[in-house]
Amino acid sequence: MTSSICRSEKVSEPPENGGPPDSFHKWSKFCRKCGAGMSVVDEGDKTWRHMCINCKYIDYFNPKMVVGCIVEHEGRILLCKRGIDPCKGKWTVPAGFMELDESTAGGAARETYEEAAANVEIVAPYFHLDIPAIGQSYVLFRSKLAEPYTFSSGTETLDVKLFEPDAVPFQELAFSSVSIALRHYIEDLRDGRFRVHHAEIEKLPGSAPNDPHSFRLRNHMQFRIESS
User: Fold this and answer.
1) I need a labelling partner for 169 at 20 to 30 A (CA). Which of 11, 16, 27, 92 fits?
2) What residues of the chain score a pLDDT lower than 50?
């Protein structure tokens, strides 16, 4: 069986001349302070920055933090079917971008409620995944469904279901990060002892978010923990 691939958020090839990626020029066009135009400058060793041509203000762009939960209830795993692009119609764990003035665990619980209308109890950190090529860092938490133990589709989801570990639809998952985390989660679940994981996803040029053949998992570290 072949998996369908989301045709968005593709990773671009670095320019042959050693300059910044083409997408870099789209990020900042006008200065936040004085409104003048922005130029792309090399601060040294190919460290590209957006600098105002007038007041010299530097607009820093940092990786986005994505937080979410792997929710378990009575041995089953809660997944959401995405109702928006990218990867509309694919399954994922409830997750999204962290907001200002919230913790990673608080953001993960908020995203779970927004996408699955589910209250959760955060159990422990589970997987930290860095994806440098698209400027994202994932922090996923182990969690349990909490009272009133209900869930339903949110404004950005088409469906929400509990899956037996053997029935998780890996061929229909939205993102490589989710697939990696769930495979390790199920492995730890069967082992009867959970670990905390950290790894880096190296996206290959031209790859799509959920392409199972266009990334490498690098620097995978795992640590056993005593609490369940």
Assistant:
1) 11
2) 1-4, 7-15, 228
Task: Select from 33, 59, 85 the last residue of a domain.
Answer: 59
Q: Is 4 a domain residue?
A: no
- pTM for the full predicted model: 0.82
- d(CA 208, CA 195) in angstroms, rounded, equals 28
Closest CA to 97 of 108, 105, 85: 108
Q: What is the pLDDT of residue 23?
A: 57
CA 17 vs. chain centroid, Å, equals: 30
Residue 215 and residue 140 share a domain: yes
> How, if at all, do strands 76-82 and 64-73 pair?
antiparallel
Domain housing 47: 24-59
Q: Please give the pLDDT value at position 6.
A: 60
pLDDT digits (tens, 9 = 90+) for 155-178: 999 999 999 999 999 999 999 999
For residue 152, give the CATH number of its domain.
Answer: 3.90.79.10
pLDDT, position 24 = 60
> Residue 186: which of 68, 79, 67 has the closest Cα?
79
Asked which of 8, 42, 59 is the last residue of a domain, the reply is 59
Percent composition of the chain: helix, strand, coil (DSSP 3-state, to 5)? 20, 35, 45
Longest pairwise C-alpha distance within the chain: 60
Residue showing tokens 């133990």: 149
